[in-house]
Amino acid sequence: MPPDEEVAAAPSRFVRGASEREEVRFLQGPQRRGFELARTIQIFFEFLYGFRALHFVGPCVTIFGSARFEEGHPYYELARQLGTELATAGFTVMTGGGPGIMEAVNRGAKDVGGRSIGCNINLPQEQKPNPYLDRWITFRHFFVRKVMLVKYSYAFVALPGGFGTLDEIFETATLIQTGKIEEFPLVLMGTEFWRPLLEFIQNRLVAAGTVDADDVKRIVVTDSPREAVDNITRVALGRFGLSYSSRSKRRWFFSE
User: Fold this and answer.
1) Which value, in Å, is the radius of gyration of the alpha carbons in the chain?
2) pLDDT of the residue at 174
3) For residue 250, what pLDDT is reported?
4) How deeply is 62 buried, as exposed, middle or buried, from its count of CB atoms within 10 A (0-12, 13-18, 19+)?
5) For residues 9 and 138, what is the distance between their CA atoms, to the nearest angstrom?
6) What would the pLDDT profile of 243-254 be if each residue is shown by its tens digit?
């Protein structure tokens, strides 16, 4: 493996041994000035760590989905096919790095020699990395992790999942709607699973005027990994100007 391809699976030193009580206290309103200054500095270094860790991972596509679907489940197999198609198209696959859908996508990418990144969040129920990752990165704060996922991804794909998956779907849809990110491919895979949600959006939100019909049209819904990847590739090459040029070189003075 060339030097600029070497990866490590160790979590960030900025999150190792994080105190759960500190996290709870941080979100419980105003605190003493010293405590909030210390937290601000920690958040700064967490951002810095993320920027340096992900700068060289290549053009990413982030995939979300439940950790509860095991090998043999149709959604697991669909996710694995998606990982293979994305890697074949030249994308680095980024997931939460855990089991289920995340494992399946990372596994599919590794099946064809693609790159896989696990972008984890530090939680009380510690999540072990799946065995198909090139790099495992752990963040302490959800908002830092979300910035990284948007900053280094050319698209989001959501397979069936729970609250976390829904959170990422609507966060991304809001950023697109408000123009904070450019026309960013948002793909939902598993048409039958997502049908009730899409009907609610169309029949309730659009009908009530709280969401524009054009906002809903931006969401691509499919059961075909090839269709999903073709759509992502077209947008990445056309709107973002993505090319298959050589990667930037690491600089030692930036600790890269």
Assistant:
1) 19
2) 92
3) 60
4) buried
5) 10
6) 544 555 666 555
Angle between helices 142-151 and 33-54 (to 10 degrees): 30
Instruction: Tally the domains of the chain.
Output: 1
Domain that residue 184 falls in? 3-241
In a domain, 191, yes or no: yes
Residue 187 lies in a domain: yes
pTM of the model: 0.81
**What per-residue confidence (pLDDT) applies to 149?**
86
In 3D space, the residue among 73, 61, 137, 142 whose CA is nearest the CA of residue 101 turns out to be 73
Low-confidence ranges of the chain (pLDDT < 70): 1-23, 124-126, 239-256
* Residue 256 within any structural domain of the chain: no
- Report which DSSP code applies to 254: G
d(CA 252, CA 256): 6
pLDDT at position 58, please? 82
Residue 128 lies in a domain: yes
SS3 readout for 116-130: EEEEEECCCCCCCCC
151, two tokens? 């900053």
Domain of 228, CATH number, reads 3.40.50.450
Rounded CA-CA distance 52/8 in Å is 13
